[in-house]
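Why should sequence recovery work at all? Because a backbone constrains its sequence more than one might expect. Tight turns favour small or flexible residues, buried strands favour hydrophobic ones, and helices have their own preferences. The token representation captures these environments compactly. In the example below, the structure is given first.
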């Protein structure tokens, strides 16, 4: 289908470059009429081009002039009418003259409509590839300061107007809803066009070698941490790249070192006194002992005296068990904990189809599973958090994973767990348009 459109475009426009024709078709979403109009609206050919090419002949090829002829466009029927009625409104022209006038007027109308369509197509082209609203409005230094203040990375893109991939980045990548959802918490996007003062200022500090040029800048140091250059990056690839970057880089890497006072913190049990064993026959005062050996001997002596007193007491009820196995059984029976009731996970009560819908106030969420696969779901914003677990459990059916936890990165780039509960919703936790990860327990 695309090859047929390409051949039709080349035959209609006379374009000889298939790659250029492919760009026009992609810009028009493979609508042939719109692509042709875009092609002619961007052509700047002088009016004398055709005449110059047709008259470029050698002197040997000049033929003799066409003999002069005299002829009339209509017959003598008109002369039979009196001139006094020629200018009146009720004068009836011959039918062929009326047809000629109608054809001329129709041609003028078509020319006007064609020019109007070309103007509208140019406006639609600009609207289609305009810069997204997420782009930071300001200078490079202002964007860098804002990123540092908000604790975010700075993404810089230098675009060139005659490189079509730069326009595609605006429409297909930065304008993508999921890409914007990944950008918002962790990045600030700043763009500059080649030839502007801001682009020249940036190129004076960093090496820009091809377009579109995209890089990630550390706002604290100004270091270029990662670069993509010279090729179009689709939305899914950009989402994966940004998520991997966030997983492996953090603006919280340079934390203050612990002070010497925290390294040698006092022992909280330093002033706790150890109780001593006392005896009625021989009271022991640990405060008068000089070393640990005396305390140990006193404690052993007191324990022996206490045990002797318990064995010789007449009113003490002592049960003697001669079989050691009975003792073990008795102790085991006594210490066995009572069984706890099994609590069913909250996601077991969720019907997934109630929340995965195209209707209502929904949001897109990307889920990354333990095997590395990613899937984007569209779910209601008022869905309980347990609905996320229900969706993940449904996707993991047939695998060996039975116990898992769902995590995400908050705005401070700390990993947090999503609670498996029915009491809170995605809106309550601010989980609109985020990327989640399933971690096996």
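From this structural description, the recovered sequence reads:
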């Amino acid at each position: 289908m695309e090859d047929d459109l390409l051949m039709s475009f080349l035959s209609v426009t006379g374009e000889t470059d298939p790659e250029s024709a492919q760009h026009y078709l992609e810009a028009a979403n493979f609508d042939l009429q719109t692509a042709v109009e875009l092609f002619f609206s961007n052509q700047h050919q002088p009016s004398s081009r055709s005449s110059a090419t047709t008259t470029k002949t050698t002197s040997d090829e000049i033929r003799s002039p066409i003999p002069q002829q005299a002829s009339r466009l209509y017959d003598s029927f008109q002369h039979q009418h009196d001139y006094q009625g020629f200018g009146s409104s009720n004068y009836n022209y011959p039918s062929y003259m009326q047809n000629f006038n109608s054809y001329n007027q129709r041609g003028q109308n078509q020319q006007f409509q064609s020019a109007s369509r070309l103007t509208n197509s140019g406006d639609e082209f600009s609207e289609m590839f305009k810069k997204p609203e997420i782009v930071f409005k300001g200078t490079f230094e202002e964007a860098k300061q804002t990123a540092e203040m908000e604790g975010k990375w700075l993404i810089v893109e230098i675009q060139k107007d005659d490189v079509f991939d730069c326009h595609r980045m605006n429409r297909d990548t930065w304008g993508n809803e999921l890409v914007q959802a990944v950008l918002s918490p962790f990045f600030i996007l700043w763009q500059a066009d080649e030839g502007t003062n801001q682009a020249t200022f940036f190129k004076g500090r960093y090496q820009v070698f091809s377009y579109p040029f995209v890089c990630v800048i550390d706002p604290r140091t100004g270091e270029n941490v990662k670069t993509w250059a010279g090729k179009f990056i689709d939305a899914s690839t950009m989402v994966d790249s940004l998520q991997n970057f966030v997983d492996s880089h953090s603006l919280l890497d340079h934390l203050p070192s612990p002070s010497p006072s925290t390294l040698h913190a006092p022992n909280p049990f330093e002033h706790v006194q150890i109780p001593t064993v006392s005896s009625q026959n021989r009271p022991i005062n640990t405060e008068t002992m000089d070393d640990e050996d005396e305390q140990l001997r006193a404690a052993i002596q007191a324990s022996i005296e206490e045990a002797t007193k318990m064995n010789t007491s007449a009113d003490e009820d002592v049960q003697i068990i001669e079989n050691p196995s009975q003792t073990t059984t008795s102790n085991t029976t006594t210490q066995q904990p009572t069984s706890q009731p099994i609590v069913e996970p909250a996601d077991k009560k969720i019907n997934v189809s109630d929340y995965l819908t195209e209707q209502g106030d929904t949001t897109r969420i990307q889920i990354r599973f333990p095997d590395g696969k990613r899937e984007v779901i569209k779910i209601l914003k008022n869905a309980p958090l347990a609905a996320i677990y229900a969706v993940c459990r449904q996707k993991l059916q047939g695998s060996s994973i039975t116990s898992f936890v769902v995590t995400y990165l908050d705005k401070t780039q700390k990993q947090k767990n999503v609670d498996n509960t029915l009491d809170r919703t995605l809106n309550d936790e601010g989980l609109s348009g985020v990327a989640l990860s399933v971690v096996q327990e």
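A few observations help interpret the result. Strands lie at 153-159, 187-193, 213-217, 224-229, 362-368, 374-380, 404-409, 415-417, 435-440.
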